[in-house]
Write a structure and sequence with these properties.
Blueprint lengths: L10 E2 L9 E9 L5 E3 L1 E2 L13 E5 L2 E11 L2 E6 L11 E6 L1 H20 L3 E6 L4 E7 L7 H13 L4 E7 H6 L17 E7 L4 E4 L14 E8 L4 E8 L2
Parallel strand pairs: 1-4
Antiparallel strand pairs: 2-3, 2-8, 5-6, 5-8, 6-7, 9-10, 10-15, 11-12, 12-13, 14-15
Helix pairs in contact: 1-2
């Protein structure tokens, strides 16, 4: 059930398998603004600092370029680029994401979990990008050393830790509030359950709805860029994907 009691109309296949590049689906609705709603999708919608997927919907008689994917109320909206012929309601489509872009975002999102594991401070904001991402921390009296962080981050990557997802109930999360690292944003609650992402045996464990790689070694080399002062205790750490 969604936030307002409406059942989600779209099965979110990427929740259980981030590596799905395409799927067969049926068009449930085309909105008056031209967004396409499917009964199932591999397209991740914008959320948790991660941009929505772009890609292609192919159907009998044509194809549509999807510029981004968002969620409005309880619906996942595939937003087409302007001026295209859209599939009809009931049409069968093949939904295929721009995999190179998504894979970069998966690497980056995973790297942000590793950075969280290394900085014992609350997260005040963040944004995932293809080759540059950032996390903002409320550091208090903690100091951040760019070179030391870069070295420790790449060591975690090289150790090739396994990532896995698991689900807990809302009540379990409420009983373990220390799992939530983000100070301003609560994790997405999905039909009374919360998705956790676990890195290694004890590297990191926190609620997250994003897409991640299977092993940290897939990330490759990372570099910490600028650590910016964004207020008395707020520090912005920029990460760059090197390869």
């Amino acid at each position: 059930m969604g936030m307002n009691g409406v059942t989600n109309r779209t099965d979110e296949l990427y929740r259980d398998d981030s590596y799905l590049k395409s799927c067969e689906a049926v068009v449930v609705e085309v909105t008056d603004r031209g967004a396409v709603i499917l009964d199932r999708t591999v397209f991740y919608y914008t959320g948790g600092g991660q941009p929505g997927d772009s890609g292609t919907l192919t159907f009998d008689g044509g194809s549509v370029q999807i510029a981004t994917t968002i969620k409005v109320d309880d619906d996942i909206l595939h937003i087409p680029e302007e001026g295209q012929v859209l599939p009809a309601v009931g049409a069968k489509v093949t939904a295929e994401i721009d995999w190179d872009r998504r894979y970069s975002l998966m690497k980056m999102h995973t790297a942000m979990h590793l950075l969280c594991a290394l900085v014992p401070c609350g997260v005040t904001g963040g944004q995932v990008g293809e080759d540059k991402s950032r996390l903002d921390f409320d550091v208090g009296d903690h100091t951040l050393d760019k070179d030391a962080l870069t070295e420790r981050l790449n060591a975690l990557i090289a150790q090739d830790h396994t990532l896995e997802t698991m689900w807990i109930s809302d009540a379990e999360l409420d009983n373990n509030p220390e799992l939530v690292r983000t100070m301003s944003v609560q994790p997405p609650r999905n039909a009374g359950r919360i998705r956790l992402v676990k890195v290694g045996e004890s590297v990191d464990l926190q609620p997250c709805g994003g897409t991640h790689i299977a092993h940290t070694g897939e990330i490759g080399a990372l570099r910490i860029g600028k650590i910016e002062n964004k207020g008395a205790k707020n520090r912005r750490v920029n990460i760059h994907l090197e390869g």
